[in-house]
Amino acid sequence: MIELTALSGKKILVNFDLIKAIESAPDTILCFQDGSRLTILETFQEIQTRYIQLKKSISEGEQKWK
Fold this sequence. Notes:
The chain has one helix at 44-65; strands at 2-5, 11-14, 19-24, 28-32, 37-40. By secondary structure, the chain is an alpha+beta fold. The chain has a single domain (2-65), classed as CATH 2.40.50.
């Protein structure tokens, strides 16, 4: 899960595996597999960076268990 900010300013945790697409025009909108959508304050690039960090930390965690 990654922490993002809703338009209201509230911090939310989002399960990245449930996201189908991310739109950036001009607001950043998460499109989920169930058809729901969520507009957030972070930019597309910020989300991409957090996703890469998440996957990297998961990968490193798996390597520690081997």
